[in-house]
Amino acid sequence: MSSTALSPNSTASPTAANLSTDLKPPGQAAAAVKPCCVCKDEKTARDECMLFSNSDNPQEDCESAVEKYRNCMRGFGFSVA
């Protein structure tokens, strides 16, 4: 067992100081978001509309849901066609 591992009898315990520590570095790296992590509700609505549309042209039928998703992504700074 390494000396850094905590054993069940260890006296080290989590404190408010180390529980609230931000693990991300400050600055731009912390502010960057991944496209998969934003606009989840809009993406789900868009996908469900496209998959379960009874229209002959689901792309036209779901245009408002697609546009909401695009606007949301643009709001986070992503370039969306």
TrEMBL record:
<feature type="binding site">
    <location>
        <position position="36"/>
    </location>
    <ligand>
        <name>Cu cation</name>
    </ligand>
</feature>
<feature type="binding site">
    <location>
        <position position="37"/>
    </location>
    <ligand>
        <name>Cu cation</name>
    </ligand>
</feature>
<dbReference type="GO" id="GO:0005758">
    <property type="term" value="C:mitochondrial intermembrane space"/>
</dbReference>
<dbReference type="GO" id="GO:0016531">
    <property type="term" value="F:copper chaperone activity"/>
</dbReference>
<protein>
    <recommendedName>
        <fullName>Cox17</fullName>
    </recommendedName>
</protein>
<dbReference type="Pfam" id="PF05051">
    <property type="entry name" value="COX17"/>
</dbReference>
<keyword id="KW-0496">Mitochondrion</keyword>
<dbReference type="GO" id="GO:0033617">
    <property type="term" value="P:mitochondrial respiratory chain complex IV assembly"/>
</dbReference>
<feature type="region of interest" description="Disordered">
    <location>
        <begin position="1"/>
        <end position="27"/>
    </location>
</feature>
<keyword id="KW-0143">Chaperone</keyword>
<dbReference type="GO" id="GO:0005507">
    <property type="term" value="F:copper ion binding"/>
</dbReference>
<feature type="compositionally biased region" description="Polar residues">
    <location>
        <begin position="1"/>
        <end position="21"/>
    </location>
</feature>
<keyword id="KW-1015">Disulfide bond</keyword>
<dbReference type="InterPro" id="IPR009069">
    <property type="entry name" value="Cys_alpha_HP_mot_SF"/>
</dbReference>
<keyword id="KW-0479">Metal-binding</keyword>
<dbReference type="InterPro" id="IPR007745">
    <property type="entry name" value="Cyt_c_oxidase_Cu-chaperone"/>
</dbReference>
<comment type="similarity">
    <text>Belongs to the COX17 family.</text>
</comment>
<keyword id="KW-0186">Copper</keyword>
